[in-house]
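User: structure tokens for this one?
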Amino acid sequence: MRTYNSHPDKLLGDHLRGVVDGTRRRTISKAAEIAALFHDLGKINPNFQLKLQGEKNVGYSSHAYLSALAWLCYCQTNKENLKDLLGIDVSSDPSLIFSIAAMIARHHGNLPNLEKDGFFKEREQKNLREFLEQTSSEDLPISEFLQSLFEHHSFDIKPPREVLDQLIFKFQDGFQRVLPRIADPLDFFMNTQFGFACMIESDKRDAGSNAQFNKEAYGNYIKQNFTERLEKYVQELPRKSDFDSLRTEMRMQAVESIRPQLAEGKRVFTLSAPTGAGKTLMLLNLAGEILKHDGDLGIIYALPFLSITEQTETICKNIYYDEAHAVQRIDSKSENKRIEEIQRSLDANPSGDNLHKLMREIFSEATFDHPFIITTFVQLFEALVSNRNSTLLRLPNFACSIFLLDEIQALPPRLYTFFTAYLDEFCRKFNSYAVISTATMPYVEMPDKDIEDDENPRKLFKRYMKPCELLDKRFYERDEFNRYRIKLVEGDNLHVEELLSLINQQSKSCLVILNTIEDTKQLHTALNDDDLSKDEYVLLNTHFTPNDRQRKIELCKERLANKKRVILISTQLIEAGVDIDFPVLYRDVCPLPNLIQSAGRCNRNGKETFGEVYLFELKKANGKPSSSLIYGRDLGWFLGFTKQHIKGTITEKEMFAVQLKFFQKVGHDLQVGLHIQAGQEIKMVKCINHMAFDDLGKFKLIDDETFGVELRYYVKEDGGFEELQHRVEQLDYRVKDFNVIMHLKSRVEEQLRRMAGDIVALRVNPNKQDQAPPSGGEVVGIRKLANQEDYSSINGIALTGACGVII
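Assistant:
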């Protein structure tokens, strides 16, 4: 036991016990516990031990696949003990043996496609076999070592060749035979993925001697103060109109509705509320009610866009103002005050203690180890179906959580029901809850369609039932939510010039939402040609820095509050979650959910008798509709639905019936879980049925191929880019101390966060990158804008040509 180390300063036996204990803390899965016990036994490899001591060129020193082989050899000689070890009889269904083997073999990598790829890569098979041929059994006393941890029938890690072939080289065929015996593929998939995640999280935690659990440490504050602080915040809100009373009524009804559902054991709920109904506070109130029912939970509040994660963070921090650690936003732009404070201390005093503190906080952020997190859909949904090691580290903290999902309509339509059903099963298995909210609630019933068994969501999600809705649909019929009327602008030949004329005839402030960046720029240029005030005509799209975007929105709010005319020309980024209120809206034709979300920015607070929403179809110079560039191909029929059902004039109250028809059509016509990415289909239901972890793990919410490659430019001349260069140059991966490397990486990440508000991210056609602005250098994917005149806070970043940019 004292001969072998797992790490330079840690005995292997101590490490295995630590990882097993950590895995037990996260899950009751016996499979995950056994995987944790076996995962590093392959370190009883003389070459690995020499490598730990600093020797070079020691030969085959891998351990993960040798550990997996040890597990399979154990199973071969301990068949009668497997039932007691795993808690189930694996004689008729040995799939769990393969699941554990995959967890062990890939614990430094990603989960593979079990049916297609097995877990032994071809090169690894060859290397392992050669190693075994050259090494004696006496040099690999794995079974003897394991006896000190638990008693078993001894096994030889070097079995006869025909047995070795059966264990390793025929694994793929073996799982193909086992797959049809799996009675519940979804359960098997989730157990393998979650067990793997718990094991690797515990492995990394123990290797770093990290006993810090922020979700638990800060969780008491949330449990003790959540409802009290929220109620105090709501009571202190200024009462401006009858709207406030209505919002209070809706919050109370939602809370009253969820109580009996919680008592019945329900875990997933929908919250359909018109735009402007105050869904953020409603969701927080519902989280408070769930905490009363089950207090030992964290909160994960997820939204589709960075701009509204910032907005939600501000609200939540205003509620929990006296506890700096109460709320943690985690996304590509978020700041972590604890990391920044420790980083400053470490820079001033580079002690081992400060370095260890920094490592703990970095690990906590990477693993979502916090009781109240605000994040993006990308961070959440990609992790739920991931196979990637680094991404799955956060999955254990998805357990025992309340998911608050706002603006769910921003997901691709084929994923509405898939992820609702997937969350339903996840919550049931791992003691979590979910409230799914939007103004345009998708139709999330399983379609009763004739479809192949391995692609049929009804057969995969056997326990799924449509979630309970927490608000009465009659709220949509209230006069307070009959705030606008949509008028179709007739004509098949409306170009920017005609749109300009319509806007100039408008005496009131108005919001114009167009489908492409190029269209917004053309209209803004045409308005500026009229030599009007730059404060009156505001351009907003993703070609501005986040800081400038926020300033533009605040400028518009200020002018609206002071009754000064303002025309905001924006892309779709304004249509969800932004609390802004225009009396008039012009919207290029779009799918119905986008239209409803856009209209939610018109007469939002009911100040006008009716806000006016003008729907039109903008044409390019070549006569092609701009909408086809964004909503073509897969979503083309969505536009057809809008054109078919929005005729003449229709009020907000009348839109509710149209909305129901739309989502019923989506639910009937679209295949649940079919995702189009990089021109290829990812059949998510089929992936789960065939244990294709790697195929499903390729899922991304934003498709780079469809919308172009992303280029990022830092636009300020303040030395920030040079500081980033300096910090990157300090990184030296030849340094053997992992903690030192992580410290240097954290300094790079800290600087990236400081710069994030002044970085423009644009997507360009891969073949037209030469038309993008010249770069004055590039480091870690950030380009320095070579010419400061290529960016302005009024017009955004300048492009030589269109670059194929559409969003």
